[in-house]
Each structure stands twice: as structure tokens, then as C-alpha cells.
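User: Could you walk me through two proteins back to back? I'd like the raw sequence and the C-alpha cells for each, with a short line separating them so I can tell where one ends and the next begins.

Assistant: Of course. Protein one, sequence then structure:
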Amino acid sequence: MDVMKHGGDVFRYCKESGLKREEIVDFSANINPLGPPPLVMRVLQERLFSIYDYPDPHCRELRHIISRRWEISDECICIGNGAAELIFLVMRVLQPKRLLTVAPTFREYEQAARLEGAVIEKVHLLMEEGADFPLDEFVQKIADVHMVVLANPNNPTGQCIKKEALDAILETAAVHGVYVLLDEAFLDFVADESERTQIRHVESYPNLIVIRSMTKFYAIPGLRVGYACATREMIRKMREHQVPWSVNSLAQIAAISAFSDESFHEKTLRWLQEERELMQSELSVRGYDVFPSDTNFLLVRHSCFDIEKEWKRLAEKGIFIRDCRSFTGLDSRYFRIAIRTREENLQLLRYLPVFRSSCCMGGTIRG
């Protein structure tokens, strides 16, 4: 099979398995299984007529809501066709010559930067130590690059960067005039999101750009909507490079509605804590190494696991997991799974191989 470059390709899964979409349980995409929120679905149905008009090219109402939520100016916000568009926009505007990131991490940063001619330098996470962040090594390299790109929490490891480490990175970058692109696509799933987000600091750190996604938490990947927060000048430049009417009317309507549904947010965090603990425990009992996670997915490893063999076997059952071989530093021993409903989680556990030998016992890795 081809090495998977992204999760969530249900069109490929249907074609290769011969199954219908409703017969597939997709653990490869980190989407909230409780969504979309009922309010979002109801409002979308009521506002379908909006497709008759062009969308608001400035996303005024959505930017206003985001500005109130994070207490920043709406001139510091750019709405995009998903976080991916915003990542590529940032690279197009800044055109960094040298970029520093970690490995493994989301591969789109590297792809977007290389299109603008950047040289990529990677500092490897300490995978044998729970994917710990090598702060000293990373900070030492900041002065020699033009941009730092980090995901918080990181994908595929699922861990947030410690506050002290992130502060050190931001301060070092500020001293050397280095841009920092911080991808907080999965931070909505983190219990202390409000304390961890750096959005409120974009006017304090002129070289800081924070990107958020609404796809994952609110389960609207088909609509494509995300936002970037940065200085007014940076946002102005991004808007100049952005395709007109990039964000369609229904995406704007869905995002506006999603922000007003606080009960959905609370329900999601309660579900996630219970199901993540269950999956960490059950996978450990079955002999797997489970990396600690702050968000809605788990990176899992076993020395005897063969992703190509097991991916095909699970696919025959309509279950799809994320092959991690496309992530720098990961091989066929690793796979990533989204946390899903109790019924779906138990279904996956039922079909995953169990490793019982003493040399192959795993556990939740302590970071």
C-alpha cells in the first residue's frame, strides 16, 4: 500500500475496501465524533439559502466573535479555508530561508516552506523518553533560522509544550527577530486551553503567528474553516495574498454558530477524558507503548507491530487507523488513532492484535 500522507481519506478507504461510508469507522482523522454540534446543523439547514449570495469576503461577523473571545482586535485575525490555507499563506508572505521545527510533526509545514525555497532544520523529539521536547538543543538553533514552526499540542505525539519551554522559545525568538508560527489546531481539546493559548500575546510578540482550526473540534472538515492571529501588519499582508472569497458562506455560518454552543464544548471535554483514559489503559494491557496525550488522539507503538499488514487486516473490518510512516522518525511500529465513541473504541480494541510475550509488554509512556 502507498504510505499514507494524511488521515481521513474516506474516499480512498471506500474505493479500496468496497465499503460504503456508513460502514467505515475512521480512526485516522482526529475529528470529534460528537459533532457537528446540533446547533450548527440546525442553523445550516435554516440558512441554506445563503448560497445564493457571495460570502462576506472579510468574514466580519466571525472575526468579531473571535476577537471578543480572545480579547484581541479583529484586525489581528485572518479567517481561512481551513488551517492548511493559513499555513501556506504565512509561508508565502514571509518566505523564510531557513526554518526550524521538530520531528515528528505535521508535514504540511515543511511542504509549504519548501514551496517558498526554505531549508528545513529538524530537532528530533526524544521518542524513547515519551517524545520529550529537547528544549536546550532547540533553543540553541533559533538564532540561525528565520522562522520557528511548532504545533501545540504536537501532531502526531499529542503532547503540549510545557509553558516554561514555550516561553523560552518565544523570548529567544523575539531577541533574534525570528518569526514563530504556532499551530494550535488541537488546543480546543485540551482542558486548560485558555491558559495555554498564545493568541492573547500576538500583539506583545510582533513575530508571533497563531493558527487555529475549527475543523477538528466542531467536526466540520468538509466546510474548511480556521483562523490566524497575528499583528495587524502581518494579517494585512496575509489578506493581500489570499484568494478572494476564500471562506464560503456555510463555513462562516457554521463557525459563528459553533462559538455560541458552550454546552458542546463542556460535553466534549467530559467525553474525551473518559475515553482517552480507557484507551490508554486498554492498549497498555494489550502490550502497546502508548505515548502520553493532552488531546483527542494517541500515538501508539509496538516493536512487533507491522502497520502494512495490520492496516489491511483492519480495513477489511471497516476500521482505518493512521499509518505513521510519513512522519519523519517514525516507522512501521507506530500508528495513531483518534479517540472515538465508546462503542467504536471497543470495536477497535477487539480487532487489534494482542501482544502477551514478556519481551513485548508495553504501557503508558511517562513523559
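----
Protein two, same layout:
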Amino acid sequence: ASTLYKNRDTKHWDEIMKRWSGLRDDEIYKTLRVSYDDLNSSDERSIFLDVACFFGGIDEETAIYIWDACGFSSRLSIKALIDKSLIEIIDGKLELPNMLREMGRRIVGEELGTGPETQSRLWVKEEIINVLEQQK
């Protein structure tokens, strides 16, 4: 996880991937998870998970508008996530490497229970439809 803090942009991810190529997915997940667990506030955690699940590639200002409406400290949290190399702003859009997106989605998948109906976020179309149909 300290590797993430030292590397300020995604150009270093190729080297990290080569270094980690022999590791199993669970080992990589546990290593990356330390960075998430180290976040200082629930706002930072929520915003990271939102970017991982929905807002990757979305305009930063649009996302800030949404998070501000939810009462989050959006700009402070985004800066903290950038400082910890968990997200980037590229051409005004929120971005993160695929490994971090997968980690965020796995964290959401591990919430509360085993099915999508217990998760805080849904992003797979079929799961959304199934959950909504079950709620009828």
C-alpha cells in the first residue's frame, strides 16, 4: 500500500503490475485494501466506492455537485484520494486504475450479506433489475 502513496500518477502502475504479476488475486486485494482502510473519513470511503462503482470517467464537477448535495466534504475527500493515489483527475474526469476499481467493487460486494439486494451500490444492469423486481 505504501507503494501507492509514493506514486503520484498511473504511469507507475505498469511497474507495479509487473512486480505483482506472481501474486494471487487475494494477496493483491489485501495489499490494496490497506489503502482503503487507511482513509480518514467515511466521506473519503464513500466517494472512493462511488468512483469505483459509478463515477469512473465522469466529469469531476458533476460528481462534486452530487456529493455536495449529499452533504459530503467533496473537494477535501477528492484531494485526499488523489494524494493517496486512489483516484486521479484526467482532463477533468475522475479516473482510477482497473485494479482499484475491482477492489472497490469487491468491497461493496462483501457488504452485509451475499446478495446484491444487501449492497449499498449496484452497477450491473441485471442485478439492478432483479433487486427492483423483488421489491414489488
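Residues 2-134 form one domain.

Let me know if you want the two compared in more detail.
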